[in-house]
Amino acid sequence: MSLIPKWENIVETKKCRISGQDFFVTDKDLEFYEKISPIFSWKKYTIPTPTLSPEERQRRRLAFRNERKFYYRKCDKTGNQMISIYSPDKQYLVYDQKVWWSDDWSPLDYGVKFDFEKPFFDQFHSLQLSVPRVNLFAKNCENSEFTNHTDHIKNSYLCIDTADSENICYSKWVISCKNCIDCYQIEKCQFCYECQFCKNTYGSSFCFLCDDSSESLFSYRLQNCKNCMFCTHLRGKQYCIFNEQLTKSEYEKKRKTLEIQNNKQMRKIKDIFHNFKEKSIVEHLIIDQSENAFGDFISHSKNAFNCFEILGWENVKYCFEDLAIKDSYDTYESWFECEQQYECHASNRVKFSSFCSLGYDNSFLLYTELCNNSNHCFGCIGLRKKEHCIFNTSYSTKEYESLVGKIIGHMKNTDEWWEFFPHKFSPFGYNETVAEEYFPMVEEEVKSKWWNWKSDEETSSYHGAYYEPLNIDQYDEKIVGYEKAQKNIDELLGWILKCEVTLKPFKVIKQEIIVYIENHIPIPTNHPDQRHKERWDQRNHRTLNEWICSECREKIITTYPPERKEKIVCEDCYKKLIY
Ligand SMILES: [Zn+2]
Prior knowledge:
single chain; alpha/beta; eight-stranded mixed sheet; six-stranded parallel sheet; binds zinc ion
């Protein structure tokens, strides 16, 4: 559902070029497109209204983002084995990140002159095939080899979208956290396990939307609580179970009985909490400390429309998973002091730029990939600290302005101006990217659209025996003695486990075993990808549905699908019931 804010007027109804669905352009949209249209040699090159619906525009950007599919391949510069998001069969040159960020090569060596006889995107694709790409997008990371889209992290493993954090494993979207495992979207948390959408939370497990809380388990929407289990919507409470107040000794006694030894017991406990939560009320949308905001999981934002999972935004539309961004439309994962972006993906600290994929610290870029610390560039790949470049060729300011104007004129004739890079030029198969999570499609459907598909993705070369994890007590020297515990831990570390759901082989690492033993958490029996999927499945999708408030019967918009059992209420009713 694409709803229009009441302070905007529809000026045009368009049909999406891919889905055929109608979508609307408003007066505010026209103002935005006018504002971000670039100027070259004193002439404004207007960005026309989109030809794709907001949903298809999002899908197109997401198809350029492989977050978590890692492969072994050789660095094309040194020949050394490395981990990469590009599988070995991909035709690109891929360099290890140390080499890629060094001065051992120059992106300008791959520069070409623009050919006005050929379409822009075909020429851009030739450049994609010649300019080296970086194996992983991780900056300033220490001892954190298997991580992607990470910045300033330490001693972490299999993390995505993680910044300013240390000792993080198997998690996504983590900011300023320490010692957390299997979490998704957490900020300033420590010692958390299987937590989602939590902020300033400490020593907690299986918590969802819990802020400023500690030592809690299996809880939903707690604020400023401590020592709570199986609780929902509590504020400033301690020693509660199933929302009932107990004394400290009663609580501690019951807490001790919750000894989960293995995953069979864990599944039962999860079901108990799931059934309890289903009887609870839920807010139709999660919007905190925001003004004129419309979407889900929005906080500290103003004038944010049709946006999801955002923090600190102003005047934005169709933006997703961003942090501190203003005056922008159609972005995905743009973080930190971003401004005036349109159709950008993973562009951190990037301003006044459109149609860019992956880059840090840029301004005034158009149609670039993997460019960093650069300004005023057009159709470039892999630049660092460069200005006035076109197709990786350097020009004077005057030449740059004149040539870009001519190329835009050419792109208008070929219907390429104002469009993000087409799907078929994504370096990844659709099923390797985040697009697959949000818009799943089968192989035949993807191929029928002439988009890429990675066909041998699921094959595993392991055909040996598998290890069955023991009860967690068996790894705890306090319970079974040092020698036996050590023997069991060594076995666990040396063997391969089989995912109970996908049958994919996986391993556990020492860093996580220590946490499981200390917190009495059973050894996982699912592959990290399956655990991520299960967390993802707990979240509402980015689809807005019309519904009725369970209390006042007024019309509401929600991301809860109609089949969900929770009592969905409007903001006013939620406040009346909870506070
Ligand atoms: Zn209501």
